[in-house]
Design goal:
This protein is α/β, with parallel strands linked by helices. The chain has one domain: Alpha-Beta Complex (Protein-Tyrosine Phosphatase, Chain A), CATH 3.90.190.10. The protein has seven helices and seven strands. A five-stranded mixed beta sheet has the order 1-2-5-3-4. A two-stranded antiparallel sheet has the order 6-7. Helix 4 packs across helix 7, helix 5 (about 140-150) packs across helix 6 (about 155-165) and helix 5 (about 140-150) packs parallel to helix 7. The protein starts with 6 loop residues before the first helix and ends in a 15-residue tail after the last strand.
Length: about 230
């Protein structure tokens, strides 16, 4: 059931739609968009597509030298041989193959390693690109997951916020189920995350959580206990 969705094909189809001149009113999207900024170091987390991951000028423009590749493990890390780049592979579409993923605590454990890797980078002021093919499904899911963790918020609110910055994000099917299981794991209070500037610099959630607006603070509810 969970392996029935081909997210690579979904990305190909989405990019084909984006490139179709015969689609009136179809919105075009950026190669990458920032969705989180560290409160003190300024390091950012971006969600983006393969063009962003391939193109060194785009990466350098945004000071990105840390990359999470959410595609299959057979895909290329384009700048892996350059010493200034560091990569983390996270083939998220195969999450269902991991043992015990019906339990929220195991879903949380599945995410903790990439979360901590991203934490380490942005705490040092380094920016991170999370990418897949289109920057919509696999990378979108991973970016939403990180924002849920970093901002101590649930799935629906976080998805609305992330989509306000990158509307193409679409964690559908098994990936949505994964995020809802992560939400259950986070709600159990298994992670302590220090208070952060919840959202991207100067942007917070509107009362309806559908579009960015300026300055609406949300309460921070620290979790207790740490499981890894």
């Amino acid at each position: 059931m969970f392996g029935s969705v081909d997210y690579h094909k979904a990305g190909v189809d989405l990019l084909r739609q984006q490139g179709s001149a015969g689609s009136p009113g179809l919105r075009r999207y950026n190669e990458l968009d920032a969705v989180y900024q560290h409160p003190s170091s300024g390091g950012k987390v971006y969600i983006g597509n393969l063009v962003a991951a391939q193109t060194r000028t785009i990466l350098e423009k945004h000071d990105i030298f840390r990359i999470v590749n959410c595609q299959d493990v057979t895909t290329e890390n384009y700048h892996e041989k350059a010493k200034e780049f560091d990569y983390y592979r996270f083939p998220i579409s195969h999450w269902w193959r991991e043992p015990g993923m019906d339990k929220p605590e195991n879903v949380l454990r599945y995410f903790l390693e990439p979360f901590k890797w991203i934490d380490t980078q942005i705490e040092e002021g380094k920016s991170v690109l999370i990418h897949c093919l289109a920057g919509a499904h696999r990378a979108g899911t991973t970016g939403v997951a990180y924002c849920m963790y970093a901002n101590n918020l649930g799935f629906d609110e976080t998805l609305a916020y992330v989509k306000s910055l990158r509307p193409i994000v679409d964690p559908f099917g098994p990936l949505e189920e994964l995020l809802r299981r992560l939400e259950a794991g986070l709600q159990k209070g298994a992670v302590v995350k220090k208070p952060a500037k919840r959202f991207l610099a100067g942007v917070a959630l509107s009362p309806t959580a559908t579009s960015p607006t300026v300055k609406r603070s949300l309460p921070i509810k620290p979790r207790s206990g740490l499981t890894s």
